[in-house]
Design a protein that fits this description.
The complex is a heterodimer of chains A (416) and B (272).
Chain A lengths: L2 H45 L4 E10 L19 H12 L6 H8 L6 H11 L7 E7 L2 H9 L8 H12 L3 E5 L18 H32 L4 H13 L4 H15 L7 H25 L3 H9 L4 H30 L2 H5 L20 H9 L4 H32 L4
Antiparallel strand pairs in A: 1-2, 1-3
Helix pairs in contact in A: 1-15, 2-4, 7-10, 7-12, 7-14, 9-10, 10-12, 11-12, 12-15, 14-15
Chain B lengths: L6 H4 L12 E12 L2 E12 L3 E5 L6 H7 L10 E9 L2 E2 L7 H7 E4 L10 H11 L6 H14 L3 H4 L12 H13 L5 E5 L7 H14 L4 E5 L3 H7 L2 E6 L2 E7 H6 L4 H7 L5
Parallel strand pairs in B: 3-8, 3-9, 6-7, 7-8
Antiparallel strand pairs in B: 1-2, 1-4, 4-5, 9-10
Helix pairs in contact in B: 4-5, 4-7, 5-7, 7-8
Classes of the chains: A mainly alpha (416), B alpha/beta (272).
Chain lengths: 416, 272
């Protein structure tokens, strides 16, 4: 047997092994991808109903009589919009007369309806004196019944018949759910929205970024470029690495003790949440920035020093800009972590039920992952869809952040 | 590689004349340590004005280390310690009041691997001038950039694309760009650490020609592993061996009639 034969024999074996390995690799990729697809499908199908909501048309009489007002009134502060709304509802079903049946009928409509009726008039006072169609929300039970078509124990046969009557009369319309994107949390599932939590997340992540990015980058630059090589610096390095592995809830406890109890900062506020998350993301940013700085070729440093740049100038004119893509990658990973973090924020009271949309860094707020957690805990069927929809919003938020990161990285990356 | 046993004993006093009249730079009893390890032993050498000194020797003998003492580039290595008397125009370059930043503006350096900044050709050359505020107006800066590129023999090749990236040039062009960047701050001395070792023969020839021209304005010290190159560009040659300066002399004399056995072995190619 010649050498060539031997090699040929072993070659066949080697190629076979390579092919087998490639198949393992493909299987692994496929498995990962399949999980992702299943997860996404599940979330999106569950979330889908939450993006639509049913409106019902009422013919509201904006008359002085219906609103319990004096003839010719111009102020609507004392107007009885609830009464007018009820009247409009009862007018649709003249045959309903018993008190209990009337109450059942009124239950088909959202408690928000009277406010929609009121807002319509306040926005357009010229309607006073006329009868106008107003589209108002249905109760969440009716809405989810219409979405899914399956009956629930929460609606009796008469109520279902009423809904059918309204549908047949063309008074019910399915629309894109703008309410979901323009309100805060609510006890009424049909008007609970993600805007409050989204704003909370934006404020919190902004604080986190503004605190963690400069501190993290400066710490990394100092440790990498200026710090003397001694035991203290080694100790700090070990501690930073350990800090990255600390469970996040511990940072929440720290935030509670330091920022709220000691410094007296407000509870449930994005500023405190941001600070806590900044503590949590600092190690991530420092570690990735350090490796990005380390990866800048020493020849660039020598070039700058060689023409007489000072250490400072070398670092900030050459090293940091060249490390920027890597620094940004680390920062975005840190921000993505912060955006999805729940545990530490529970500790500082960002889990409260907050209806108002936060307007600033010190308003009470909650964040998207906590909103998801709160809704996932609610029994109403509508909240199942809202939970998934909020997850979709959170994912969209993440995708936007990543897109921004990719854009910035492309900008800083000098591919020459 | 047959080394005679007495060779290491012979490593002691430098053979040849380390002195020149009116030197631009001078070093006396230079010792360099990396931590505990001594990389340069007691080297004394003068660098004359408007002349090229070639530093040759087997790799790891300390040529780069010695060269980097001359503009205090070794300061950037924390474990590196330099002892001895090193002077630029009678100024002690390791004196407390000597600013290494200023020193490096006066003693420029060209490195082994071309290392242009990832910026435009113009910005590469203008960088030092901007840094030290050498130009007051845009026109002055333009003037510096153009004349530096001209002296580096690169201007004709890049004059139409000064705004394109310096890293897009060929290796030889990049190295000339680095030379232009160095001379743009009008240094008095230029240190070159194997400037042509990463280049092809044609680019090398261009760089060698350039070095010969630059001699009229600058004092030049060049490390090279090519003896032909040393012979072509330098007036004096210093042969290093294991951290010691073994022999120094006129380049002609070193290559035709070396005094020390080690030098002879090296230049006849018996080791290195
Ligand atoms: N940064 C450094 N740290 C420790 N030792 C070094 C360093 N740079 C060079 N040396 C050592 O110093 C000696 C001389 O190196 P160098 O000056 O680079 O030699 P050459 O340039 O002649 O090849 C070598 O033994 C090398 O290992
Ligand atoms: Mg070297």
């Amino acid at each position: 047997m010649t050498n060539t034969d031997r090699i040929k024999q072993s070659l066949a074996k080697r190629y076979k092994r390579e092919r087998r390995f490639q198949w393992y690799g493909r299987a692994a990729v496929f498995a990962g991808f399949a999980f992702l697809v299943v997860l996404m499908l599940d979330i999106f199908t569950k979330a889908y109903p939450a993006f639509f909501i049913h409106y019902v048309k009422l013919d509201v009489a904006y008359t002085a009589e219906a609103l319990d007002l004096e003839e010719g009134a111009t102020e609507f502060d004392n107007a009885n919009f609830r009464g007018a709304t009820r009247d409009a509802i009862y007018a649709l079903f003249p045959e309903v007369s018993k008190r209990k049946d009337k109450r059942d009928l009124a239950k088909l409509f959202s408690s928000e309806a009277e406010f929609q009726v009121r807002n319509r008039l306040l926005n357009n006072p010229s309607l006073f004196g006329s009868t106008t169609s107003v589209w108002v929300l249905l109760d969440d039970d009716v809405d989810s019944y219409l979405q899914s078509g399956s009956k629930t124990a929460r609606l009796n046969e008469t109520q279902l018949a009423h809904v059918q009557t309204l549908q047949d009369a063309g008074r019910i319309e399915r629309r894109f759910n703008t309410v979901f994107f323009s309100t805060g949390d609510s006890r009424e599932p049909e008007i609970a929205g993600v805007l409050g939590a989204t704003m909370g997340s934006i404020f919190t992540v902004t604080v986190c970024l503004l605190v963690a990015f400069p501190i993290g980058v400066l710490a990394a630059v100092y440790l990498e470029e200026f710090a003397p090589q001694n035991r203290w610096v080694d100790l700090i390095e070990i501690n930073i690495n350990n800090l990255a592995a600390v469970p996040s809830i511990v940072f929440g406890l720290l935030g509670l003790a330091v920022f709220i109890n000691f410094f007296g900062m407000p509870r449930s506020a994005p500023v405190v949440g941001g600070l806590v998350l900044a503590l949590m993301t600092l190690p991530t940013i420092i570690i990735s920035s350090r490796s990005a700085i380390k990866a800048v070729p020493p020849s660039i440093r020598e070039a700058a020093l060689g023409v007489g740049a000072s250490k400072m100038q070398t670092v900030f004119q050459h090293v940091v800009p060249l490390a920027m893509p890597g620094i940004l990658t680390g920062t975005i990973i840190g921000m993505a972590q912060a955006l999805g973090e729940t545990a530490p924020l529970l500790m500082i009271g960002m889990v409260a039920f907050i209806v108002d949309i936060p307007q600033g860094f010190t308003d009470s707020a909650t964040v998207l992952p906590i909103q998801i957690y709160l809704w996932a805990d609610s029994p109403e069927r509508t909240f199942v869809a809202k939970t998934s929809a909020a997850i979709v919003v959170l994912l969209a938020f993440l995708v936007c952040m990543n897109a921004l990161a990719v854009f910035l990285r492309k900008k800083f990356e000098k591919n020459w | 590689m047959a080394e005679k046993p007495d060779m290491h004993q012979a490593l002691g006093e430098t053979v040849g004349d380390i002195f020149v009249d009116n030197p631009k730079m001078s070093t006396r009893n230079t010792n360099v340590f990396y931590g505990e390890k001594q990389a340069i032993h007691n080297v004394s050498l003068d660098f004359g004005k408007n002349s090229v000194v070639a530093l040759i020797g087997p790799s790891g003998c300390g040529k780069s280390t010695f060269l980097r003492c001359l503009n205090r580039m070794n300061d950037t290595i924390p474990i590196c310690r330099v002892e001895g008397d090193l002077k630029l125009d009678d100024e002690d370059i390791y004196a407390k009041d000597m600013d290494p930043v200023l020193l490096r503006a006066r003693v420029g350096m060209v490195f082994q691997k071309p290392n242009p900044f990832p910026k435009s050709i113009y910005d590469n050359v203008a960088y030092g001038a901007r840094l030290h505020g050498l130009a007051r107006t845009r026109a002055e800066l333009d003037e510096i950039v153009v004349s530096s590129l001209q002296r580096a023999g690169l201007f004709e090749e890049v004059k139409d694309r000064l705004q394109s990236p310096g890293t897009g040039l060929s290796g030889g062009q990049q190295q000339r760009l680095c030379i232009a960047r160095t001379i743009a701050v009008s240094p008095e001395v230029i240190l070159m650490d194997e400037p042509a070792s990463a280049l092809d023969p044609i680019a090398t020839a261009i760089i060698e020609e350039l070095i010969d021209e630059l001699r009229s304005k600058y004092t030049i010290a060049i490390v090279t592993h090519s003896m032909q190159q040393a012979a072509r560009v330098s007036q004096r040659t210093a042969y290093f061996h294991m951290g010691r300066l073994v022999e120094v002399g006129e380049t002609n004399q070193i290559f035709t009639n070396p005094q020390h056995e080690l030098t002879e072995n090296y230049i006849t190619g018996r080791f290195g």
